[in-house]
């Protein structure tokens, strides 16, 4: 069918200009979810995306924690290399379907879950993003609280929760949180083009300040006081060091599991898949390794320059490091930089994604902007500061998130690469006609639903009854089990169980391997 017969219409939205055909079903389509009219992001935009994703307070603390695992520095570096290369490969795999079709992650999942069943991964991923969004907003808001106290020490009494607090957060804390909440909402509300410009600037800008901060602390401490080993007490040896290294690899992959799953929300904007892969290479292995080394040098030098915290532990939070520097200008610049960096990761990883996810649930009622604001409001209701300040709660929350994300990832890859052989019929992503490629049974693929449920059970059991070490592998367990169950079901289950018509739809010859059938004009 030609574009003229379909009379496609260009639709403008905050998420980009898309093309909507008359045949697209209203329940599945809006201008935010439809295929992009033009994909214009270069490798640098993808590179900047990963810089913004990594250069946050959470990323800083995470990188520092890896060097404090009690294993040799070379083992940490091996774990970092293996882990981040694995992330790079997985991101390339999940990026391809969205880049080919020009659609966001939740629309891509219609290929495996069905046009209606895709709401399962969309809602699950959206809720996960809400939790992370709240935590990251809280972490960044702490910076503003410290900055306020530096200039107005008299505000200290308003930082006491017992005297001036509400729902577990002080008045000063609420002020910082609301300020961060508003700043992020303003950037998001202006649309993807503004977000692209924001992350293009933030990634390099944060690096400049980080290098200056590291140089300042190293100069003050002296190279002799800089070490790649941040561990306290006797280190791990023998088999314990091997298992700790393997655990570190798993932690690296799990840390990136959220943005890795919904990377299609950004790869859809890539000019070509080659541009996306190039951006991933510079943004992940190269960027993350340099970032990690810069972090550990900064943290190590900071021990000599500013000392340890009240409990005698090494300070890995960059906001607290710069706050203790005996230089007001440097402290202010550092605090603002890391606050901006955290805004960057929060928008790209936890604002854009739920915007698409929630819009997918009810396209006619929920726009991309509305979906994002639903996530923003939800992030306040969960009171993330209480979550983050409770070690048991944060442990169970983060491990559970990994357990949920894993199965969704495993099903997506098993379907696109092993079952569908990298073929997508883009127009059928927006069709509810019986017999269309992704109609399955009334829009639901029962195999995907079953695989998700089965894939969730083992990792959740590990979270509840397993050790903290075993919980590091929940993402891998969920992805492996769900992917295997899905592949088995799609291969051997009766077609009458999977499809209303009792037969598998045939994808036309026009879609070659690694391509998508779509005629926009």
UniProtKB/TrEMBL annotation:
The keyword Ubl conjugation does not apply. The keyword Transcription does not apply. GO terms for molecular function: nucleobase transmembrane transporter activity. The chain crosses the membrane at residues 43-69, 76-95, 131-152, 164-189, 201-219, 239-263, 284-307, 327-349, 370-388, 400-419, 447-466, 472-489. Keywords: Membrane, Transmembrane, Transmembrane helix. GO terms for cellular component: plasma membrane. Its main location: membrane. It is found in: Membrane. It is a multi-pass membrane protein. Belongs to the purine-cytosine permease (2.A.39) family. This is Putative allantoin permease. It comes from Gordonia amarae NBRC 15530.
């Amino acid at each position: 069918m030609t574009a003229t017969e379909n009379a496609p219409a260009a639709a403008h939205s905050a998420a980009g200009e898309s093309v909507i055909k008359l045949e697209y079903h209203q329940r599945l389509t809006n201008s935010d979810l439809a295929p992009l009219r033009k994909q214009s992001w270069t490798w640098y935009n993808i590179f900047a995306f990963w810089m913004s994703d990594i250069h946050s307070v959470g990323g800083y603390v995470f990188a520092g924690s890896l060097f404090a695992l009690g294993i040799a520095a070379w083992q940490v570096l091996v774990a970092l290399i293996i882990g981040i290369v694995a992330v790079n490969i997985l991101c390339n795999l999940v990026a391809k379907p969205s880049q080919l079709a020009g659609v966001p992650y939740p629309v891509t999942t219609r290929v495996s879950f069905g046009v209606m069943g895709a709401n399962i991964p969309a809602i699950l991923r959206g809720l996960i993003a809400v939790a992370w969004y709240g935590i990251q907003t809280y972490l960044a808001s702490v910076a503003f609280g410290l900055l306020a106290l530096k200039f107005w020490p008299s505000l200290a009494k308003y930082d006491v929760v017992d005297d001036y607090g509400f729902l577990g957060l002080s008045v000063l804390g609420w002020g910082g949180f609301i300020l961060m909440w508003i700043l992020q909402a303003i950037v998001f509300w202006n649309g993807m083009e503004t977000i692209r410009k924001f992350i293009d600037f933030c990634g390099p800008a944060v690096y400049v300040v980080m290098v200056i901060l590291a140089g300042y602390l190293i100069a003050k401490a002296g190279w002799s006081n800089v070490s790649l080993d941040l561990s306290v007490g006797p280190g791990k040896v023998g088999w314990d060091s091997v298992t700790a290294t393997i655990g570190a690899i798993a932690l690296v992959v799990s840390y990136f599991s959220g943005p890795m799953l919904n990377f299609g929300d950004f790869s859809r904007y890539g000019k070509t898949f080659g541009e996306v892969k190039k951006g991933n290479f510079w943004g992940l292995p190269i960027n993350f390794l340099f970032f990690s080394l810069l972090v550990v040098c900064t943290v190590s030098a900071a021990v000599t320059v500013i000392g340890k915290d009240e409990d005698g532990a090494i300070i890995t939070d960059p906001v607290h490091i710069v706050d203790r520097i005996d230089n007001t200008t440097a402290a202010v610049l550092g605090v603002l930089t890391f606050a901006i960096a955290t805004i960057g990761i929060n928008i790209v990883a936890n604002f854009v994604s739920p915007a698409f996810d929630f819009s997918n649930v009810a396209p006619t009622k929920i726009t991309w902007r509305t979906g994002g604001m639903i996530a923003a409001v939800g992030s306040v209701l969960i009171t993330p500061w209480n979550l983050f300040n409770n070690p048991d709660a944060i442990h169970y929350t983060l491990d559970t998130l990994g357990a949920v994300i894993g199965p969704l990832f495993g099903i997506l890859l098993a379907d696109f690469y092993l079952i569908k052989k990298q073929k997508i019929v883009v127009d059928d992503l927006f069709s509810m006609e019986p017999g269309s490629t992704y109609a399955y049974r009334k829009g639901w693929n029962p195999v995907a639903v079953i695989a998700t449920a089965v894939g969730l059970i083992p990792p959740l059991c590990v979270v509840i009854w397993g050790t903290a070490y075993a919980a590091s592998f929940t993402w891998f367990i969920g992805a492996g089990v769900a992917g295997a169950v899905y592949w088995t079901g799609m291969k051997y289950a009766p077609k009458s169980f999977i499809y209303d018509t009792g037969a598998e739809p045939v994808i036309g010859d026009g879609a070659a391997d690694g391509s998508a059938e779509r005629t926009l004009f």
